[in-house]
Write a structure and sequence with these properties.
Blueprint: H1 3-20, H2 25-35, H3 41-46, H4 57-85, H5 110-124, E1 128-129, E2 135-137, H6 138-141, E3 166-168, H7 173-182, E4 187-196, E5 208-218, H8 223-238, E6 243-251, E7 254-266, E8 269-281, H9 283-288, E9 297-304, H10 305-313, H11 326-329
Parallel strand pairs: 1-4
Antiparallel strand pairs: 2-3, 4-5, 5-9, 6-7, 7-8, 8-9
Helix pairs in contact: 1-4, 2-4, 5-10
The chain binds adenosine-5'-[phenylalaninyl-phosphate] (FA5).
Amino acid sequence: MSAMLEELNSIESQALASLKVIADADSLEQWRLAWIGPKGRLKGLLGSMKDVSPADRPAVGKRLNEVKVALDGAFEERKGSLGAARPQATGPMLDVTEPGLDLTIGRRHVLTRTIDELIEVFARMGFTVATGPEVEDEYHNFTALNIPPDHPARDPLDNFFLDGKHLLRTQTSTVQIRAMEQSRPPLRIVSCGRVYRPDEVDATHSFMFHQIEGLYVDRNVSMVDLKTTLLQFAHAYFGAQAEVKLTPSFFPFTEPSAEMHIRMNVRGQWRWVELGGCGMVDPNVFEAVGYDPEEWSGFAFGLGIERIAMRKYGIPDIRWLFENDLRFLTSV
Ligand code: FA5
């Protein structure tokens, strides 16, 4: 028998014998390093293969492999049995003296907060909250609001139609109609909610945004009531120095119509900011809901809630409101 084969037999029997008496993980690791580790006895023999005669080499190679498999297997088995024998912990694995983890307290989204704040301001002026569906029919989104079938605002390219007759509402003015259909005057409501338009998205425009709609119907309501209500809102929400300006505009459902601008302090500078549209309810709208326009008069307004929140909280880009970036959400 070649000297190498003898050496291999001896390594095998010595290694297996010494493994039998190992009783802890440290000694097992020592054993691994000594016998099968990268600098162990078995690896050392590999270097001597070049001295084996070509005739003996196949047999020696085969035996080397057998010994390696035997020692690796015995090692794994011993490791397993030592692990199983390790004493199991008793009692709870909990150190009650360790400092606890900080819990991050969440907060309502800035738009939700703005909606609640707006509703509170108008509630103090006697407005109640009304709601309406986001999926609307053409009648409530257009026809009842005095927007005739050939009006460009009804163009399918300017709306999110779901089928030929239903669409995602483009304005909260739809709730004016639904509120008037459901009750008799006098009436004083606000309605906040999502609206949808295929507008190109940029720092001030989104394809989905929120509006607050206001409607006041009574006898002898005038533009003075409208402007006073908006001024009260501006003072309550943006501070006593805020001013309101109405400039002529056009909406099919109000006559006369106006754009509402508020002069407010935007990061240290006083500026006029346009927040939405308003006007006196058009007689055709009253007729559509069965109110007598000779008896009843009223005003309505619709303001963009994102624009209000952006001014109030100094948010420069409308997209930040919808991206759910925690760096933004935790800073406003
Ligand atoms: C209207 O939607 C009318 N319904 C308002 C109204 C109500 C007039 C009642 C008269 C009586 P307008 O399309 O201008 O009007 O939109 C109102 C406000 O919504 C705008 O001033 C702006 O603040 C906001 N808004 C409009 N488009 C977008 C958009 N793409 N992204 C964010 N905000 C928008």
